[in-house]
């Protein structure tokens, strides 16, 4: 009995040491990504996702069929799951009021996911159509939801900057979004 207690105490002490070391190491790193790293990661994820979403409507390779729409929806679903995971795991930037920006990013991600879910539901209705004419009509009805989703992506950086930030943090994030190459790619498509 005493031996089990000693073993449990030793394991608990080792766990405390490991957790302490991890926290100490994280403290040395500053706790989160720099503003520019954070902005670049946000924009890179958004650009990649936007490209996947716009592929839903791409007909440059021929007519959009029910089968090609299903394939594109599967790809967009995977891209949406990746976007949500990447941005939620990013954590707050290392700026004053970083937690506020992180909460705004979380709300943005939730909104993008909801917009995608609306688009996917409409696409599923088109796929369930009983005739080619109904399928095409269903696709045409997706245009407003598709446009809203693209506008949400295009306005993402402005929304993040509109969070209740002190002037210095806002200026730092504005500069980070301006300097990050991925953010320049995101704004070029506007």
> Low-confidence segments, ≥5 residues, pLDDT <50?
2-29
Write down the overall geometry.
Answer: elongated
Number of discrete helical segments: 9
Work out the radius of gyration: 22 Å
Mean of pLDDT: 81
Please estimate the helix content.
Answer: over 70%
What would a concise description of this structure say?
This protein is mainly α and 190 residues long.
Can you describe what's shown?
The chain has nine helices and no strands. The chain is mainly α and 190 residues long. The longest helix is centred in the middle third of the chain and has 30 residues, at 98-127. The model is unreliable at 2-29 (pLDDT under 50).
Write the layout of secondary structure elements.
Blueprint: H1 2-28, H2 35-54, H3 66-90, H4 98-127, H5 132-140, H6 143-154, H7 156-161, H8 167-179, H9 181-188
Helix pairs in contact: 2-3, 2-8, 2-9, 3-4, 4-5, 4-6
Keywords:
disordered N terminus, mainly alpha, 9 helices, 190 residues, 79% helix, elongated, single chain
């Amino acid at each position: 009995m005493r031996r089990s207690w000693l073993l449990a105490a030793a394991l608990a002490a080792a766990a405390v040491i490991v957790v302490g070391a991890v926290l100490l190491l994280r403290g040395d790193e500053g706790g989160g990504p720099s503003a520019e790293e954070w902005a670049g990661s946000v924009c890179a994820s958004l650009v990649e996702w936007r490209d996947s979403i716009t592929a839903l409507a791409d007909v440059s390779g021929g007519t959009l069929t029910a089968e090609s729409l299903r394939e594109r929806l599967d790809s967009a679903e995977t891209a949406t799951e990746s976007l949500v995971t990447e941005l939620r795991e990013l954590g707050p930037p290392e700026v004053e009021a970083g937690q506020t920006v992180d909460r705004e990013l979380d709300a943005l991600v939730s909104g993008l996911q909801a917009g995608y879910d609306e688009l996917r539901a409409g696409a599923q209705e088109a796929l369930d159509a009983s005739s080619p004419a109904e399928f095409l009509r269903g696709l045409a009805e997706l245009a407003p939801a598709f446009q809203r989703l693209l506008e949400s992506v295009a306005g993402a950086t402005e929304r993040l900057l509109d969070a209740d930030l002190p002037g210095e943090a806002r200026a730092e994030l504005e500069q980070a979004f301006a300097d990050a190459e991925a953010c320049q790619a995101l704004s070029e498509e506007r």
